[in-house]
Amino acid sequence: MDPVELRTDRLLLRSWAPGDEDVLVRGNHDPLITRWTRVPEGYTREQAVARLADVREGWDAGDRLAWAVCDATTGEVLAALDLRHLADDTWDVGFLCYAWARGRGVVAEATRAGAAWAFATLGASRVEWRAIVGNERSRRAADKAGFVHEGTLRGRHAARPDGSHPDTWVASLVPADLVGAG
């Protein structure tokens, strides 16, 4: 699958590309990102290069779709959004917002655009959001995007660097959740 650009009134979602290494390194040196995601502490340029290669492979396979979320006017990278195919017509959404863009509703807006595209183009019937219990920023973004909380999965999060598997909140978005919502 070729990478797809998505637009909202304020945002441009474009595939990550060569030249984005520096923003990945700068953005991923944020303690909040390393605390709540699988991004490792001390994120390096080599890891950014590997991430860009993985993005290309994901688009080629059509099962891991990743966007740089940018200001539609300036092109500045503000956040990241991923859709990963889980099974059948269910997709998982992952997102993060860089420190310099927090508090502006960027992630919720980008997530709604990505989900709407997944429903219309990929035939998705469900987009799932998951976060480590306690990640209130992610939960607020999911709430603003319209996700319906379904519960807590005990010990379900991917292994952390210390080997633990934290409990995970799970919520979903289905096409009807986007109808008539802003």
Structural class by secondary-structure content: alpha+beta
Largest sheet: 8 strands, mixed
CATH superfamily (homologous) name? Gcn5-related N-acetyltransferase (GNAT)
- Level-2 CATH architecture: 3-Layer(aba) Sandwich
Please indicate the percent range of residues in DSSP E strands (runs of 2 or more).
Answer: 25-35%
Count every beta strand, where a strand is a DSSP E run of 2 or more residues: 8
Write the layout of secondary structure elements.
Elements: E1 6-7, E2 11-15, H1 21-27, H2 31-36, H3 45-61, E3 64-71, E4 77-87, E5 90-97, H4 106-122, E6 126-132, H5 136-145, E7 148-153, E8 168-173, H6 175-178
Parallel strand pairs: 5-6
Antiparallel strand pairs: 1-2, 2-3, 3-4, 4-5, 6-8, 7-8
Walkthrough of the structure:
The structure is a single chain. This protein has helices at residues 21-27, 31-36, 45-61, 106-122, 136-145, 175-178, and strands at residues 6-7, 11-15, 64-71, 77-87, 90-97, 126-132, 148-153, 168-173. The protein has 182 residues and is an alpha+beta fold. It has one domain: Aminopeptidase, CATH 3.40.630. Helix 1 (21-27) crosses helix 3 (45-61). The longest helix has 17 residues, at 45-61. The protein is globular.
Compact description:
It contains 6 helices and 8 strands. With 182 residues, it is α+β, with helices and mostly antiparallel strands. The chain has a single domain (6-178), classed as Gcn5-related N-acetyltransferase (GNAT) (Aminopeptidase, 3-Layer(aba) Sandwich).
